Fold this sequence. Notes:
The structure is a single chain. This protein starts with a helix and ends in a 27-residue tail after the last helix. The longest helix is centred in the C-terminal third of the chain and has 35 residues, at 313-347. It is an alpha/beta fold. It has 14 helices and twelve strands.
Amino acid sequence: MIPWWVLAIAVFGTNFTLWGLIGLMRLLDSSTQRWWQQRGATSVSGQRVVVGRDRQHRHDPPTRVGVADVAVLMPAHNEERVIVDSIQAITALVPPENVHVVSDGSTDRTVELAEECGVHVISTARNVGKAGALQEAIRRFGLVDRFEVVMLLDADTHVEPGYFRAALPLFDDPAVVAVAGCVTTSWRDRALGPIGKLVAFHRQRIYTMTQYLMKFGQTWRRVNATHIVPGFASMYRAEVLPRIEVNPPGLVIEDFNMTFEVYQKRLGKVGFTPSAVAATQDPGNFKDYVKQCKRWSLGLWQTVRLHPPRANLFSLMLALLLLEMLASSFMLVLLPFVALALIVPLLFDGLAVPVVDEVHDFVAGFATLPTLFFGVVVPDLVLTCIVAVLQRQPRFLLFACFFLALRVLDAGIALSAIPAAWLSKSSGRWRSPGRRTIDAPVTPRTTPTK
């Protein structure tokens, strides 16, 4: 008989616990550093002396990267419904001349609307896929030679005002070559139906748990290894982009591969802070949600296939993550069948149903209904409550009973993508999910300062 607590660990994993504890160590380390710098910082000849690991920069403090040094690169494929809002949101934070849009074979008014916003716009000759469009745009715009940092921004994403103020200082550490944004889902003012809201809140629950309990710990400067810098709003030090193969053949998405390249080629570290927030549009219907999940899962396994493991922390972290994902996915997929095998005989109490009774007896040797309840259902509800508190959104509780079913669906999609990653290749071409115009206020533009 499997104890309920073993089932809970197997389904919800040790990665959250491991990286959550490392995240707490990061918080403690940051607090200690601030306290030490406040006590140890002095002034010599009018210049600030920084103690600790920055002692070698005693006379030359690191040059801070400002928004004027950032090129924004926005790939777009038939995004006429959201492109203007996204451009207005980003040009409220950076100069319009820093914003570059590459239309990947769009057949709608994407190019026309982007040009009317006063930003740089080019088009690919045909639909080459997001990675291909990024690669072509980086070359044609000459971004590596003109800017210190390149931001990759999805056309449906709104960067919040504090993003650059929180994210750019991470580049003061010369070892940091990429910065991951903190994603949140935009659901207000999108006229979403019940299914759309369920998907949005499910995604936000995943974002909250993975970013606060995993990515925050994975991007600590002392223990740095995260499996993805999400492509919705990420930044890369321009000088490393020529060393990253942005568009290798056969991959359906680019962000997993770019992150793997950073670590496997030992280009540097990834930075992350929960304060660098950007809101993106998650699918507004069930069909688009399933398609996006398939694309993400396929992209992960394709990238794993492309990059053999090496003797480093990143490969170890990835191996633990994948093994745990496989174990939890198998258990989640089996969960409905196990529950059914335990419940059905109760409905035929007193009746002899040979096959049903045999299946029940076999399953009951491993699990019981109380085991499933306390090992799976209760922990899932607890996670929902934690997210509701962290997000200050009691609405999460309204969908609490549906999240577990979506996790079972996610697990099935993740497992089905494994053979496809080895048996098929992808062109990288994309079709944007159905977009909804967001009636969100845009911060008035002010001239950025370095």
